[in-house]
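Weekly puzzle thread! Below is a chain. First person to post its structure in token form gets bragging rights.
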Amino acid sequence: MNGSYPFVVNWECGCVFSEKALQELKPETCHGCGGNIDKANIIQLNPEGELLKEYEAKVAEELLAKKAKKSAAKADIVEGPSVNPEIEKGNIFLQ
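Winning reply:
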């Protein structure tokens, strides 16, 4: 990690590799932990320029999706689960 070659991280497992080694080996599985390697989850460390802007946009999209999911879950809690009408009427007796 002397700056000659860029390094990447596998976002799924956290293992770090040089980008050159990843290109030469073209692995199907992570050599650090044996997990899966998905090209979409390979992130360059200390990116510059356009790549940095691309990563920032991706993070912003993920945050918006997370907020939308949280607000949808909150709306579901406010409405509450459907209640059995027999229980509300008191027609069900515990034995």
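Puzzle host: Confirmed. Bonus trivia for everyone else. Residues 38 and 44 are 14 Å apart (CA to CA).
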